[in-house]
Design brief:
It is a single chain. With 404 residues, this protein is of the alpha/beta class. It is 23% helix and 26% strand. Helix 2 (123-131) links the parallel strand 4 and strand 5. Residues 8-28, 38-79, 330-338 and 348-359 have low confidence and may be disordered. This is Arogenate dehydratase/prephenate dehydratase 2.
């Protein structure tokens, strides 16, 4: 059966995409483990929160707001008590915070409040809990909402994805780093492990389609193709699990985390269904104030700068680091690029001497040095001599651990 990817009716796409993996990609790099159907359902869930259109690598860099989902359920008379308990269970979960709700947001004030984008069960929630154990994780509808929540003192920190080892950069968050005045105070790397989820009693052979974020579906392409499942893209992984649970779908599964399975009462039919085991997302920890950089452990510094147009100008900029033997970022898992360039917003197309046009570009660079190190300070002084713009986004400890 040919596998296809189509946008769900919840958030329709303009076209249908047919996935045809290459011959060399037929064998997954990870071992998929299928579970027996003996896991009890914890509780049913009623979905009232919206699934948000955020095109992130594990969830969103598109800032468009998806239409809210308000599916209606007709309760069976024999299941009234169970469904009533389901509603109570869902109502106890935190709702994603939107900008319109800032004035009504109330925290218990007893723990560090950390914003993340998504709903309960999202990979971003797990990253926030790794970054700040025992924190009060606050779900937000959009990346912008998380930035604003920190700036407006509604939360203390934000933990947001910046790049994925397979999907690349989350460009939206690069833009938001420049637009807002938050500081990077740390990083956390999180290994993404996708699971195939379904309602209790549903077997793998019962499934005809599967819902998830487009990136998650792409990362599990080989496994889903072998199972012959039609793939339908929705706004996030945890939202897909929530929807499958509420609708009590018997022919539809979701690709999401094991945490989402526990929260929404779904069974895990198969674990580690991603095609590449080296699927790691790097998150940034953001705060209103910077930390004081040190030299007692490995530090990383993130900067953004722009340059005048001209031959060899980027080479000249990078030479300020090479001359002082400062390495651009290298990870245990190598993330997309050591330099990220973005067009400078709100700037017109400029003319050069040969009448060809060009845009000013911003360059995002991470380098392995603390701003407490004299050679790092000298490098930035040198760069500032010819850069048209330079800003230090943060100097922070390097995360050397990866949580599976």
């Amino acid at each position: 059966m040919a596998a296809s990817v189509a946008r769900s009716q919840l958030t329709p796409l303009s076209r249908q995409i047919t996935a045809k993996p290459s011959q060399s990609d037929q064998t997954p790099k990870c071992i998929v483990r299928f579970r027996p159907l003996n896991i009890p359902r914890r509780f049913n869930v009623t979905v009232k929160a919206s699934i948000n259109r955020n095109d992130e690598k594990i969830g969103g860099n598109n800032n468009k707001t998806a239409p809210a989902l308000h599916p209606q359920s007709i309760l069976d008379d024999d299941d009234d008590e169970e469904d009533a308990a389901s509603k109570d269970s869902l109502n106890s979960l935190p709702r994603p915070l939107s900008s319109a709700q800032f004035s009504n947001f109330v925290s218990d004030g007893s723990r560090l409040r950390v914003a993340y984008q998504g709903v309960r069960g999202a990979y971003s929630e797990s990253a926030a809990e790794k970054a700040y154990p025992n924190c009060e994780a606050v779900p937000c509808e959009q990346f912008d909402t998380a930035f604003e929540a920190v700036e407006r003192w509604l939360v203390d920190r934000a933990v947001l994805p910046i790049e994925n080892s397979l999907g690349g950069s989350i460009h939206r968050n690069y833009d938001l780093l420049l637009r807002h005045r938050l500081h990077i105070v740390g990083e956390v790397k999180f290994a993404v492990r996708h699971c195939l989820l379904a309602n209790p009693g549903v077997k793998v052979e019962d499934l005809k389609r599967v819902l998830s974020h487009p990136q998650a579906l792409a990362q599990c392409e080989n496994t889903l193709t072998k199972l012959g499942l039609v793939r339908e893209a929705v706004d996030d992984t945890a939202g897909a699990a929530k929807y499958v649970s509420f609708e009590q779908l018997k022919d539809t599964g979701a690709v999401a985390s094991s945490s989402a399975a526990a929260i929404y009462g779904l069974n895990i039919l198969a674990e580690d269904i991603q095609d590449d085991c080296d699927n790691v997302t790097r998150f940034l920890m953001l705060a209103r104030e910077p930390i004081i950089p040190g030299t007692d452990r490995p530090f990383k510094t993130s900067i953004v700068f722009s340059l005048e147009e001209g031959p060899g100008v980027l080479f000249k900029a990078l030479a300020v680091f090479a001359l002082r033997q400062i390495n651009l970022t290298k990870h245990f898992y190598v993330f997309l690029n050591q330099i990220e360039s973005r067009p400078l917003r709100n700037q017109p197309l400029r003319s050069s001497d040969d009448n060809s046009g060009y845009f000013d570009y911003l360059f995002y660079v991470d380098f392995e040095a603390s701003m407490a190190d004299q050679k790092a300070q000298n490098a930035l002084r040198h760069l500032k001599e010819f850069a048209t713009f330079l800003r230090v986004l943060g100097s922070y400890p390097i995360d050397t651990t990866i949580v599976p």
